[in-house]
UniProtKB/TrEMBL annotation:
Pfam families: LptF_LptG. The chain crosses the membrane at residues 12-33, 53-78, 99-122, 368-388, 395-414, 426-449. Its main location: membrane. It is a multi-pass membrane protein. The lineage of its organism: Bacteria, Pseudomonadati, Bacteroidota, Flavobacteriia, Flavobacteriales. The keyword Transmembrane helix applies. It is found in: Cell membrane. It comes from Tenacibaculum tangerinum. Keywords: Cell membrane, Membrane, Transmembrane, Transmembrane helix. This is LptF/LptG family permease. InterPro entries: LptG/LptF_permease.
Amino acid sequence: MKTLDRYILKSFLIPFLATFFIILFVLVMQALWLAFDNFAGKGISVGIILKFLWYTTLIVAPQALPIGVLLSSIMTLGSLSENYEFAAAKSAGVSLQRMVRPIVFLAIFLSGINFLFLNYVYPYAMLKQLNMKVNIKKKQPAIALVAGGFNTEIPNFQIKFKEKYGEEDNLLKEVMIYDLSSKKGNNKIITAKKGEILSEDGSRYMTLILKDGYYFEHHEKVGMPFKEREKMAASYADFEKYTINIDISSFNDDDIDDLKYTKNFNMLSLKQLNDTLPTLKRDYDAFVSSRAKNLFLSIDIEDLHQYPDSLINKELSLNILDNFDLKEKRNILSIATSKLERTINNNNSNKETLKNKRKYLNLYDIEFYNRVAFSLSCLLLFFIGAPLGSIIRKGGMGMPMILAICIYVLYFFSNTFGRNLAEESSLTAIFGSWLSVFLMLPLAITLTVRATKDKGLFDVNSFFAPIQNFVKNLFSKKEKNAT
């Protein structure tokens, strides 16, 4: 390696390592802050929190790497231009392409590292962290309860409440509980204005104290006919305080590191995604095909056959309804309307199921293409940051930091926007995953060409020159006509 290459690499690596670890720290702290409510005051050990942070570090590292490359390339090239080192190199016959060649190879190497991280380390970290979150919730049932919908994680109970609050996040508002312990369905319903969850570490019971509520239970026997069920008596009472002890011993048997969820789209490598996608697509196509068959059967559609003219009854009207009297017409239209309404209702009820199945398939498809597209972000952002740094001729953390943030926000927004559109089937999975690359590639090419030709970021003169020439020619023509 030549002395110039070593010097350029050293000038790039020092700011790169500094910015990479700073950005990584910021992203990890952001993730910890978002998950802080699930850890604070819940009796979770420091070891589990550190393990959670380690998995978070592995997850956000592929995001921090492109930002570090972008920022350090702007800083390095900007500093070399600001100190006239590029000018000295050019006077010695060394071109810009020759100077940045070692950094280009390094950017390609970092893109390869990012790909390996996304393909192997990232799925492993997502697998471990998601299962850890689930197991922590099982160790602390109060964490598992979420406001707004029915919580079914606790055995034999379905619990719904409007809000969870308090210092320990264990106080509930507007509670509704379905007690399913009798195995007879939703026959026992308890509602309360307020509730409180009490549970100790290692205890096999969670105590739920309800205040100012109502209790309803419909009494019936297993196997009782429906008509007799309606005649059975029901218990109804109000209460000021009601205590329920819920057995959660099955939760405590699970270990924090148990792996129960292993097939999520972000837990699989590219090879595993490639093996899983055909199965998912076959299941989706089979579901669509079955719904289409049910649609044809429900409206009694039959195949049309062409008959010879000799078999056609000339006395029948081509308008089918004209062959029936008024009463029969009403019956036909009534049956057709009811079948049509029933079919529309069935389609509406299955619309959400179809949408969710398509969305589920899209998530796997998008993840497959996005792994490759995002791994190239190091190389793409380098070819934006390096020429931009040589054009603005500013080193340090001021202007380069602002430009790097703006560029990466644009890249990240376009990547997220494309993935969301592909998730909703507005775009294909491959186009949605590569949308950010398609949008940013022209910018990278433009900046690289301008930096190679030693042009500024915006050439104002080249913009106004045609206008000035047009005005001069216009006035010169007027002067000639006047003479």
